[in-house]
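In the lab's daily routine, each protein ends up as an entry in a very long ledger. A line of letters takes care of the sequence, but it says nothing directly about the fold. The three-dimensional part falls to structure tokens, numbers that each stand for a local backbone shape. The outcome of that step, for a single protein, is printed below.
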Amino acid sequence: MPEAQTIKLVSWNVNGYRAVMKKGFLESIASLDADIFGLQETKLQEDQLTRAMKNIDGYAPAFSFCTVKKGYSGVAAYSRMTPKAVRYGIGIDRFDDEGRIVEMEFDAFTLFNVYFPNGQMSDERLQYKLDFYQAFFDYAETLRKAGKSLIITGDFNTAHNEIDLKNPGPNSTRSGFLPIEREWIDRIIDMGYVDTFRTLYPDAVKYSWWTYRFNARKNNAGWRIDYFFVSDDIVRKGWVKDAFIDNDIFGSDHCPVGLILEINP
């Protein structure tokens, strides 16, 4: 009988790929030893990719770039496993132009690495963020209805509950913890997606993002806005073995988050 396959997945908003490269990024990636890792907010155009970014030993890369604004948004995904297909975006130019989605399809699951929009800049950007949630999960649901098991990771730019940020009261009127944004996380869960870290560690107080101001990281005044959601069939199959937030890795205002799967044939 074939053995179970253990797969380690990592997601990290690097807040500028070129910047994090100067802060021990390759050493951090080596220490994480993930089979697949996704990066968000790379802030790169294609002609700015370096050899080191394209050729991380053992990994095949996939990049999506923002085409409407330089030095903005962008995601990357790297895999030791060969995907059946790699896709970019969801077929809606308004969202795809910002380079926020890489989709990797494997035999057992389809992985999305997503940089969800930030709604703090203006009411228009908040609406864009909410529209993005709707459009993305409409697309994801078409895949689920086709029988796909989904893993959705990245920076969701929303803290779900009060346990997920240091100062929920003062931030309740700030984008990232608005009721209308938190309701979207409720909707995702109601649709049958599982927040793996919170499900495994219901009482854990850990954050994945800290503002650069006010010594926030030193004081651990953070937010948990980086997630691994999985479609509930993955949980029912018993594939989810662990989830983690690695507060010991620096280089960005976010830290890496991860998921350990054990896939039984």
